[in-house]
Every structure is written in C-alpha cells, then in structure tokens.
Amino acid sequence: MQQIYLAGGCLWGVQEFIKYVPGVINTLAGRANGTTHSTQTEYDGYAECVRVQFDEAIVSVEQLVEHLFEIIDPYSVNQQGHDVGLKYRTGVYSEDQAHLEAAKRYIASRADAAKIVVEVLPLTNFVPSDDEHQHRLTRVQEDHYLCHIPWDLLHKYRNAKSQ
C-alpha cells in the first residue's frame, strides 16, 4: 500500500471526492507541512490535505493527481472556491520521491503546464485533523454548502460504483 497527500482547498470536499476513486483504500483528513504537531495551535504554514492510501496496482500517482485536477482550479493561488488563504493552496506531498516525480511528470505533460500553480513538495509534517473533520460531508451532508465542489462531482466515483 502506498500513500500520498493531496491538497485541493477545503479538505472536506477533497476527502469526500477522492475516497471513492477506484484503488483508494483509506483517507485521512489533515494538515501538511506545518511546523507544529497539533491542531490546537495558531496557523503554522500548513495546507489542508488528505492522506490517500492506495493500491498502486489499481491506481497510479499520475491518475490520482489527474483526479485531483477534476476538483480544483490548478491556476488559482491560495484559493479554491470561496475558501481563501495559504492553507487552501493546492499541492501534492509525499515522503516518496518517486511519487513527487510522477506528479511533476503529469503536470509537465499537460498543455497548460506553464499556468499550473499546484505545489509538489516532500512531506515534512502531517497532523491528522480532529474527528469532527473526518468524512465530514458523509456525516453532515447539510454542510455541503460550504464546499466549492458540486455534489454530483463529489460523488462521481461513488455513483459509478453503485451502477
């Protein structure tokens, strides 16, 4: 099992979307690359993200990054939908250099590569979000109005599995 960390604005929507992608085994909402090991501190430079554990025999890093691009504006700096701020930046993080190289290859292969502002960096720190933020849009669907991703897109792969 492999793992990679994907940031695409508010972590609620990223987790709700990516957990249904075939090959994804488990997800955990959290914070990447901050300086502290707690959710009870002032903002410390982190990006809201989701740890994605996946089966590389079913889904590749390139495919996961391509899925991330389905739900983000890859040209937007520190903003996704109505969420604005450094913690809402887009990114791909990993402790595995091969994952980072694969993400960079995917981005470089796109015709719009020069305009893309998604950061691809080594993971230096991950702090899981508090329980109230885990699978939030599954548990509290009425909070979807806070998410910039349309409901049908959030469940694109869940709906495909049920057909």
TrEMBL record:
<comment type="function">
    <text>Has an important function as a repair enzyme for proteins that have been inactivated by oxidation. Catalyzes the reversible oxidation-reduction of methionine sulfoxide in proteins to methionine.</text>
</comment>
<keyword id="KW-0560">Oxidoreductase</keyword>
<dbReference type="InterPro" id="IPR036509">
    <property type="entry name" value="Met_Sox_Rdtase_MsrA_sf"/>
</dbReference>
<feature type="domain" description="Peptide methionine sulphoxide reductase MsrA">
    <location>
        <begin position="3"/>
        <end position="145"/>
    </location>
</feature>
<feature type="active site">
    <location>
        <position position="10"/>
    </location>
</feature>
<dbReference type="InterPro" id="IPR002569">
    <property type="entry name" value="Met_Sox_Rdtase_MsrA_dom"/>
</dbReference>
<dbReference type="GO" id="GO:0008113">
    <property type="term" value="F:peptide-methionine (S)-S-oxide reductase activity"/>
</dbReference>
<dbReference type="InterPro" id="IPR050162">
    <property type="entry name" value="MsrA_MetSO_reductase"/>
</dbReference>
<protein>
    <recommendedName>
        <fullName>Peptide methionine sulfoxide reductase MsrA</fullName>
        <ecNumber>1.8.4.11</ecNumber>
    </recommendedName>
</protein>
<dbReference type="Pfam" id="PF01625">
    <property type="entry name" value="PMSR"/>
</dbReference>
<comment type="similarity">
    <text>Belongs to the MsrA Met sulfoxide reductase family.</text>
</comment>
